């Protein structure tokens, strides 16, 4: 028996036994991207980490509803209700409609996640598609007395809320400490309290994305969308809420406050957060110039990269660090990951070369248990990978006959690799895909060479037979002045 699944809960700052509210169902909400620019690598890591968590929960038998939103409205440049709308600013810059920006970067986001072989979420709700739900929730918070309206803008009243609920509980901070970090309000401020945040923001004459509401034309604050959409699809209390660590202090703290003020129950049982990326030890950021996009990482088109790295090398590299640890990018580390990834894939291809023996010199059941123990310990992928490299050693030794495996154990080993390498870690064998293409190209060159010789020898029967049989097999060939072209 492997140990039961434990998950580190940011809320309690401890690993807790995972007990879903209504097994076998699991509700998981992950804050998705703000689609006003290319998805950056830090975000990609978050979504790849939650893809692995999603895959593992599915693998161990849970029926998971995975909701990951698209923020396509209401995200201002500063996270504290200040600055310009991110979409409007980009729309002006690129001379596009805000929804063209949304469409462009949503497609780009999906493409990057497809290249990384992530599974799509069960539901991917967009903020603009849930304005009604957000308005309803704001009305309820107002009715409960935890919000106030000032000239068309609705603010959440943090001090009032904190008389009854612990605001800042997610980052373990008290109201006084939080207040210290904020600026004094001036006479022009509409807010009553320094920590108050906007639920609904009044539209300015130039605002492009705006909707009618009981408080006039405006748009929702950034935090309310996640409270409204998680409630709609997962209920007032659900199992897992995830996101990047940078969302804890403001976005997730405010999500908890909004949901609790509205429904009077704690919204989430397990809060799960992924850590940040660093490059050669320094925090990755756009302003520091050391932040690269996924496609730059694939092509190597960035001053900090010696060359490009394949999507599966990057995914394997990410899995080598625990999701709660920082992940440091360097050319050396990526090159080491590339070697490791190739070694893993080669060993899987070699399993078929193992000759079955009468007895096994290694314990495959124990190896399997160790793999589950690793994942059950807060999805510890680096420990899992260490176990998979023990499997690599066993495979290579069994091919060389320095270890022995029975036919049953060979099958178990094959299943183990399928489960953990492909189903759980979400890797694919890139060499297999490429090899398939190379083999077909090689075969076609051979066939077309034979046809060319036949034509040179005026052997029209053979030449026609090749053309007709290829056609019957679904391959069309065409003679052009530059030679022969073919297509499936
Ligand atoms: Zn969110």
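-> sequence recovered:
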């Amino acid at each position: 028996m492997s140990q039961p699944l434990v998950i580190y809960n940011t809320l309690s700052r401890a690993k807790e036994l995972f007990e879903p509210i209504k097994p076998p169902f699991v509700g998981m909400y992950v804050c998705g991207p703000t689609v006003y620019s290319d998805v950056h690598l830090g975000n990609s890591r978050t979504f790849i980490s939650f893809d692995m968590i999603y895959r593992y929960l599915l693998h161990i038998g849970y029926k998971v509803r995975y909701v990951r939103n698209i923020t396509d409205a209401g995200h201002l440049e500063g996270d504290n209700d200040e600055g310009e709308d991110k979409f409007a600013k980009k729309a002006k810059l690129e001379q596009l409609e805000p929804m063209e920006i949304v469409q462009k970067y949503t497609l780009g986001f999906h493409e990057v996640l497809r290249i990384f072989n992530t599974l799509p979420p069960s539901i991917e709700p967009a903020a603009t598609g849930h304005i009604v739900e957000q308005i309803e929730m704001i009305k309820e918070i107002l009715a409960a007395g935890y919000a106030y309206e000032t000239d068309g803008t609705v603010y959440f009243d943090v001090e009032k809320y904190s008389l009854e609920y612990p605001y800042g509980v997610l980052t373990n901070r008290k109201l006084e400490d939080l207040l210290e970090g904020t600026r004094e309000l001036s006479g022009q401020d509409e807010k009553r309290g320094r920590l108050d945040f906007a639920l609904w923001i009044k539209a300015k004459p130039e605002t492009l994305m705006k909707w009618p509401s009981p408080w006039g034309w405006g748009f929702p604050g950034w935090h309310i969308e996640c409270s409204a959409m998680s409630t709609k699809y997962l209920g007032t209390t659900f199992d897992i809420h995830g996101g990047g660590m940078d969302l804890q202090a403001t976005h997730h703290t405010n999500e908890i406050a909004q949901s609790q003020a509205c429904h009077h129950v704690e919204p989430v049982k397990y809060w799960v957060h992924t850590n940040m990326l660093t490059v050669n030890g320094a925090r990755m950021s756009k302003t520091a110039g050391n932040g690269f996009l996924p496609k730059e990482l694939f092509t190597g088109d960035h001053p900090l990269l010696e060359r490009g790295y394949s999507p599966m090398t990057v995914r394997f590299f990410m899995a080598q660090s625990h999701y709660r640890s920082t992940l440091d990018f360097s050319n050396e580390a990526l090159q080491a990951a590339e070697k490791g990834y190739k070694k893993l894939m080669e060993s899987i291809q070699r399993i078929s070369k193992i000759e079955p023996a009468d007895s096994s010199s290694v314990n495959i059941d124990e190896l399997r248990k160790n793999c589950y123990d690793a994942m059950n310990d807060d999805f510890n992928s680096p420990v899992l990978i260490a176990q998979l490299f023990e499997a690599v050693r066993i495979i290579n030794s069994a091919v060389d006959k320095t270890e022995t495996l029975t036919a049953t154990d060979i099958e178990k080993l094959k299943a183990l690799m399928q489960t953990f390498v492909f189903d759980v870690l979400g890797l694919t064998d890139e060499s297999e895909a490429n090899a398939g293409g190379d083999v077909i190209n090689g075969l076609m060159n051979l066939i077309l060479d034979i046809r060319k010789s036949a034509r040179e020898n005026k052997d029209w029967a053979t030449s026609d037979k090749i053309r007709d049989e290829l056609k019957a097999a679904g391959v069309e060939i065409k003679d052009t002045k530059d030679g022969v072209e073919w297509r499936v």
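DSSP finds 16 helices and 15 strands in the chain.
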